[in-house]
């Protein structure tokens, strides 16, 4: 099984281009200068994503299913050709500080029967960077974060797949703590437990953490937190191009900016890092602790949190252009 799993997981190397939000182009600016969060197909208000009562979340066990909702998968569609059950799930996990939180994701079960009584082995998939706001959650997109072909490949190979959106992505009124390793890792590990709770014995206790880019970072975190998926048997991590050496990357970006180089193409990611630090500790890390005043001002706007990875760079180019606003705070 290990050799077969390695071969299947290798398909990820062909899928890096599909890691974004799945919708291109910036939102149009209206007569006023304020940002407009872009509407995404099928992502209007959905009661499924209303955040539950926090007292109920606190009472739930890690990985406990709080809510579920079927995902339409017509037999004629790519997903429908391989899945016997597709649903969004909301489950209990914890944030970076250990506080119980509700998180969302999705669960896919194969059409083919499990090979043995152990059930389908499980891949807990960790997605690449999508954004900060609820609307940037892969479970809210028709393409499941742009990764449907890869997910279908795994289903055809006999794997069940569960995918965490990460805390802050999905439920209304939240902001994602970008690159919070503990929270991301816990959400991936608890998603595996949630899959077992939702799918019963048809889903094996055996699971892998697999991720790409930010998701590679999250998958490594899930390996560290694997014991939190109590009763499950963790088999290993496949982390593709994981986010790493972040302090070095920030120093290199600052050096490039100070030497007159352009950070175009990286500004959105850098802005997300600054926002992630703010989510972690708002008092210690105001938006302008890392970011230039102009970029910080834009990132503090609530509507900007729902500008996903395919939109944030274009937005900053319009409202905080690099040549006048810079990107990073020189003395951070």
Short description:
The chain has a 7-stranded mixed beta sheet with strand order 1-2-3-5-4-6-7. With 332 residues, the protein is an alpha/beta fold.
**Helix count, per DSSP?**
10
- Mean pLDDT metric: 88
Task: Report the sheet with the most strands, covering strand number, pairing sense and barrel closure.
Answer: 7 strands, mixed
Inertia-based shape: elongated
The total count of strands amounts to 7
N-to-C span: 49 Å
The main sheet orders its strands as 1-2-3-5-4-6-7
Structural class label:
alpha/beta
Describe this structure in words.
The chain is an alpha/beta fold and 332 residues long. It has helices spanning 2-9, 54-59, 148-156, 181-199, 214-224, 246-258, 267-280, 293-299, 312-319, 322-325, and strands at 65-70, 83-94, 100-110, 120-126, 160-164, 203-212, 233-240. It has a seven-stranded mixed beta sheet with strand order 1-2-3-5-4-6-7. Strand 6 (203-212), helix 5 and strand 7 form a beta-alpha-beta unit. The chain is elongated and about 60 Å long. The model is unreliable at 1-43 (pLDDT under 50).
């Amino acid at each position: 099984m290990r050799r077969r799993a390695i071969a299947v997981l290798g398909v990820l190397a062909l899928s890096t281009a599909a890691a974004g939000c799945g919708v291109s182009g910036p939102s149009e600016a209206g007569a006023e200068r304020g940002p407009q969060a872009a509407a995404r197909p099928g992502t209007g208000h959905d009661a499924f994503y209303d955040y539950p009562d926090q007292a109920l979340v606190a009472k739930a066990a890690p990985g406990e299913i709080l809510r579920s909702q079927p995902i339409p998968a017509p037999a004629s569609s790519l997903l429908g050709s391989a899945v016997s059950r597709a649903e969004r799930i909301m489950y209990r996990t914890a944030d970076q500080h250990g506080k119980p939180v509700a998180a969302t994701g999705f669960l896919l079960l194969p059409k083919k029967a499990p090979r043995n009584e152990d059930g389908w082995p499980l891949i807990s998939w960790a997605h690449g960077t999508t954004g900060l706001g609820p609307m940037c959650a892969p479970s809210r997109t028709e393409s499941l974060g742009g990764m449907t072909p890869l997910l279908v490949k795994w289903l055809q190979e006999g794997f069940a797949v569960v995918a965490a959106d990460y805390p802050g992505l999905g439920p209304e009124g939240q902001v994602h703590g970008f690159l919070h390793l503990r929270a991301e890792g816990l959400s991936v590990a608890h998603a595996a437990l949630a899959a077992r709770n939702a799918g019963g014995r048809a889903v094996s206790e055996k699971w892998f953490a697999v991720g790409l880019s930010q998701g590679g970072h999250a998958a490594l975190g899930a390996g560290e937190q694997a014991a939190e998926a109590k009763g499950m048997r963790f088999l290993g991590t496949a982390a593709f191009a994981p986010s790493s050496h972040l302090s070095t990357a920030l120093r290199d970006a600052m050096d490039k900016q100070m030497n007159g180089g352009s950070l175009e193409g990286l500004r959105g990611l850098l802005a997300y890092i600054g926002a992630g630090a703010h989510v972690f500790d708002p008092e210690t890390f105001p938006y302008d602790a890392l970011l230039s005043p102009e970029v910080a001002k834009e990132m503090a706007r609530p509507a900007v949190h729902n500008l996903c990875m395919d939109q944030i760079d274009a937005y900053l180019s319009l409202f905080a252009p690099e040549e006048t606003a810079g990107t990073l705070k020189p003395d951070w």
